[in-house]
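Can't paste images in this forum, so I'm doing it all in text. The chain is below; anyone willing to post the predicted structure tokens underneath?
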Amino acid sequence: MGIKIELELDDNDLAYFQRIIEEKKLGQRDLEIRDVVEATRELIRAARQASTPRYIMSMLEQLGPLVDMVTDEDWSLPADDVARVLHALAYFSDPEDLIPDDVPGIGYLDDAVMVELACRNLRPELEAYLDFCKFRDQESSRRGSAGIEVGHVSRLDWLETRRKELQATMRKNRSLFSRRQA
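Text version of the structure:
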């Protein structure tokens, strides 16, 4: 029989972890997409190979969509939004984190907390991207696996239209989300 473990972070705890994220941003101003993406993917691979506890691994798996949104050519995220995501992922690309990853059982616990904060801070971006992926999959199925032209609307047309709609909503939601956080 398993047990349920919950972590409750108060405002001071959240501020502490947020400061760490901000310090990583300041220390890595010119982030290379390729480097951050590869380091984040490597963290996920290493955690899988280390038999990381399932509750921590489920948190780390949430990094996948964040990485995907900056590499997905169909999503074509504007540069300033890519920078926001990369700065959130900077913590995971730095081998120097709060708890060394090779500590059995808890080495990735700090990473799990940081994933939660990153996903929280990037909620509008993440929701818009996941909506886009769902739309793309549904439309590709509906229009055929190649997403070929139907009538006078090409795959590029319907993806671009939906991408623009969702990215506009993302920016609006981010503004609303930021005001609520303040």
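The mean pLDDT is 84. Residues 10-121 form one domain.
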